Inverse folding.
């Protein structure tokens, strides 16, 4: 029986989890900061139509490239190498974005510079998913982490950080506007972008002394050719189910008609920066109770059932909002129901998709499995940002032109998709156990060996190979971690 970990060991274990996961703050901040201020600095007629959508889409494209490319890098070159590179990219291009936005370019030159910077910023953000988030999940099953807190720490270090970043990305421009005033919006815009450098560089420094996760050292295929056909045969259905549910979640989350419709309703169309940013802060704050409360539920219900619960409640409140929207269109009741709708989105899929993606696959291909699922999710976000016109046309079919009921179409569709996602989760996604990664690695080795694959070269802990027979002893070891 091993001794219970000391307080110092427990704190170090939690610190490693957050060092790996909190870089996703850059994802929420980068996606949240780009929109509102730019058109007020340069004027709504200075840019081509849909410029903000174009900039957001460029970030999504870079993010998808980063997810897919660094998924392979994470598995074959190492988690730490991928994480350090990702943090460096985000740091550099956050500063470059701020510098280019203040340079003396023509409007089209400025837009071209921002598009370039935002693409590579997206690559760095995307790289964090298969590198930082995957390493974070592996750190949660370390000996210093209590079994009944493994899922909790992952959610707090990843999705909670993204949601907090959405709040900060709405609050920072508001504060800078208060400081600089309406006659110095260029300074507010440059600082809003440039401040994204701070969390990225802090994470970079935080990671300098890290080592590869122990489970990666023992079960990676860094020096072995990965048998992709065998992997797909065993994990293809899991990957497809998680990817589809992630697509649906991101489609709902990034579909801009929701918040813009609600803000316009509450403010009566007020275009004041203070009013718009203030209400955006309030709306984004609804994410926080969902992700925080959900994080403390996951270890008891499990990721699968927590996700289903969140999706069904999200659909329930979405249908309520759809049915009552026209009746309470000028009431704050719609705003509150919408906030609860967002809250359960984070309670369910927001917290649990990353867990399911990282812990449903073996260590040897975890980065690529996670990267593919997250990339398909980002495609959903891309479709959501560009689907606004189509959704408005769909909403038009609900009522005559000019009726408030015409705005309910997106809410009906979003709620229906939440139910579809819950059904996919119920039928096609397996529950996750605590310490499930070690069990999955063992099952994967046995599967490979049963299909004639030599697993002797897997792992590199202490420069030695690990074998199947060495794993059960470690899995059966009694531990007494303290929360």
């Amino acid at each position: 029986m091993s001794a219970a970990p000391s307080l110092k060991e427990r704190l170090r274990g939690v610190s490693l989890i957050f060092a790996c996961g909190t870089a996703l703050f850059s994802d929420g901040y980068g996606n949240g900061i780009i929109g509102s201020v730019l058109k007020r600095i340069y004027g709504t007629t200075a840019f081509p139509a849909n410029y903000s959508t174009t900039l957001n889409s460029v970030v999504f494209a870079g993010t998808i490239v980063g997810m897919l490319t660094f998924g392979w890098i994470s598995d074959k070159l190492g988690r730490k190498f991928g994480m350090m590179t990702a943090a460096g990219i985000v740091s550099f291009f956050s500063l470059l974005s701020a510098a280019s936005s203040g340079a003396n370019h023509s409007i089209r030159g400025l837009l071209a510079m921002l598009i370039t910077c935002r693409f590579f910023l997206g690559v760095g953000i995307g790289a964090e998913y298969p590198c930082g988030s995957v390493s974070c999940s592996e750190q949660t099953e370390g000996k210093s982490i209590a079994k009944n807190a493994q899922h909790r720490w992952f959610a707090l270090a990843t999705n909670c950080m993204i949601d907090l970043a959405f709040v900060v990305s709405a609050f920072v421009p508001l504060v800078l506007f208060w400081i600089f005033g309406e006659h110095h919006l260029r300074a507010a815009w440059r600082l809003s972008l440039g401040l994204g450098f701070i969390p990225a560089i802090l994470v970079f420094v935080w990671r300098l002394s890290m080592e590869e996760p122990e489970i990666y050292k023992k079960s990676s295929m860094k020096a072995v050719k990965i048998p992709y056909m065998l992997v797909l045969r065993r994990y293809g259905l899991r990957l497809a189910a998680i990817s589809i549910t992630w697509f649906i979640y991101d489609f709902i989350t990034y579909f801009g008609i929701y918040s813009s419709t609600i803000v316009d309703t509450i403010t009566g169309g007020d275009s004041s920066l203070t009013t718009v940013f203030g209400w955006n802060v309030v709306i984004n704050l609804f994410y926080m109770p969902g992700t925080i409360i959900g994080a403390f539920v996951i270890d008891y219900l499990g990721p699968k059932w927590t996700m289903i619960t969140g999706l069904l409640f999200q659909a329930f409140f979405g249908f309520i909002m759809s049915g009552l929207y026209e009746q309470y269109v000028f009431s704050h009741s719609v705003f509150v129901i919408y906030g609860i709708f967002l809250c359960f989105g984070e309670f369910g899929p927001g917290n649990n998709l990353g867990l399911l993606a990282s812990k449903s696959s073996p260590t040897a291909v975890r980065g690529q499995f996670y990267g593919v699922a997250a990339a398909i999710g980002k495609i959903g976000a891309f479709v959501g940002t560009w689907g606004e016109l189509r959704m408005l046309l769909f909403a038009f079919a609900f009522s005559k032109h000019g009726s408030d009921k015409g705005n309910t179409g997106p809410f009906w569709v979003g709620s229906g998709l939440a139910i579809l996602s819950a059904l996919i989760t119920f039928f096609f996604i397996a529950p996750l156990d605590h310490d499930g990664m070690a069990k999955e690695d063992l099952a994967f080795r046995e599967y490979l060996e049963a299909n004639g694959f030599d697993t002797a070269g897997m792992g590199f802990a202490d420069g030695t190979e690990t074998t199947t027979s060495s794993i059960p002893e470690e899995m059966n070891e009694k531990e007494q971690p303290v929360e």
About this structure: The two ends are 18 Å apart (CA to CA). Residues 107-139 form the longest helix (33 residues).
